[in-house]
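Much of what follows relies on a compact textual record of a protein's fold. With that in mind, consider the following protein and its fold in token form.
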Amino acid sequence: MKRIIVFGPGPGFKGGIANFSISLAKAFANMKDTETHLVSWTHQYPFFIPRNFIDDKSRGDLLETKGVTVHYTLNYNNFLSWRKTYHTIVELNPDFIIFQWSNPIQAFPIAHLIRELKENTGIRVFVDLHFGNRKENSKFVKRLTIYTIRYADAYIVHSYKTAFEVKQLFPELTFNLIEDGSRQYNKGKPILKLYHPIYDMYTPDPAFDVALQKERLHLKKYVFLFFGFIIKYKGLHNAIEAFARLAQTRDDVSLLIVGESSWQTRNRKKWLRRLCCRYIRRWLVNSGEDEGDYRPLEMIDRLGIRDCVTVVNEFVPNEDVHKYYQMSNAIVLYYDMPATASGVESIAYNFRLPILATRVGHFPETVKDGVTGYLAEPNNIASMTEAMQNIIDQPVYPENFDDVAKMMNWANYADAICEMAKSVRPA
């Protein structure tokens, strides 16, 4: 029997990485002759980060405790917990462990675990990369990424962009890019190119009264949805400006903004926390990319579109996610810069919801122009507005999403990793 560990935030945490870790663990647990463990954080970030990462709104357990044993052990702020987590992994003695790597702030405890495992055990370590050289492209972030993931036995990526970035991070290494789960390997450290699987934890509710809810939220006939954490690279400012132009020519459109602001939180009473976060942002992003002053919602009144924009500026519990997708005609992902695969995009496929995205990063790989959505040119508001108009004039068909849904599922994702693992030897 195989024993597999997924390392990442478990049930009870907010965000796409928690959803990803839970879904991946469930996929392994559904395989025959497989024992699955999810080793999770208790606290993901330094104590002075002024955000609440605990999901205290959702009522259900997305893991449903079926076939997965969860171990809450790692506290960023307690080095003794780092050792405890290491010993927990060693005692479980898995065939391999998959670390979710998504945030450079988490570098030090994850790097500690990977290095200890590689120096003292024969456990194979894979890293599932939710970015390579982080979106903001900071030199400090690049160094943290190299420091953390260098000693992994293999990498899993969701786009060619991330695979290319891994090669750039380690130019002295030879890599073997694997584009499926086959065992025809060449020499070199494996990079398994997969995809962001489609979240099946969020599904349409056939009993949901779309018309009634749209009326309550003052939504018009055509609804464009921005969903998820409000972070600068995700381009909410682009979506608002492009929508404002569309609203000048139509009176039947609405923009629905649903999500929690990234760095703007109510819990900023202590000057020390404010100061620490200011310097952290400076380390993690290049000049001009600081999130601290990013307030795109202020554009709504400035552009005079308050009457056709609805804002839900808070974290949405899992049970309510379906409502916003079911009320919408398209999801808007007008990213400012290349990024890795989007969990928001993944949810959209499950709702057969068309995707409007900029032609950057992985989006040209996943969004089929005119089939599953429309691509706009980056830094081109007119092109973004045109894509919105296309959804109205040339809507895509729901059945266009069926083939994508069949291919990009969690079972295939887990199978490909296990197939790759057969030929990976500890470094």
Summary: The mean pLDDT is 89. The first strand starts at residue 2 and ends at 7. The domain at 210-406 is CATH 3.40.50.2000 (Rossmann fold).
